[in-house]
Amino acid sequence: MAQTPRAPNVAAQRTAMEKLEFLVGDWSGGATVLRGPGQFVEMAQTESAQFKLDGLVLVIEGVGRTKTDGKPALQALGLISFDDETGTYKMRAFNDGRWLEAEVKLAGTGNSLSWGFTLGPYKTTTVLRINENGEWTDHGEIAVNDRPPQKMMDLKVRRTSR
Hints:
Elements: H1 10-17, E1 25-36, E2 39-52, E3 57-66, E4 72-83, E5 88-95, E6 98-107, E7 112-119, E8 122-130, E9 136-144, E10 150-161
Antiparallel strand pairs: 1-2, 1-10, 2-3, 3-4, 4-5, 5-6, 6-7, 7-8, 8-9, 9-10
């Protein structure tokens, strides 16, 4: 006999997603991203975060343009949702023709989250938070094999609209 799939608890999902409200809006500022061994690119960065599907999904789009010529250097899209069965936030992120899935963890006083992934010898960790000045900051690190982690990305943007 086939089992009936468990019905999702949409109210619990929506309540959990409300905790990510601190990201909603349009943001702009700057970022530095590692593009090769010791090669960092300075960018003008924008981030846009909006709820979709009546609050069940948070869509975040980031675009970084090189400060030297304004060409896109980083384009990323992330979709965050809450799995009420496991009690975890999940993210599917896309950039540069690749995608990944990661668990997102809320941290601090509700204005910070973290995620990371491991792929072969590469391991990343990223911490996003709203600092005491109301700025959205991202700090990402990458470790390869047994080497110590190194900076992969630093971002600081300010909200320009809700």
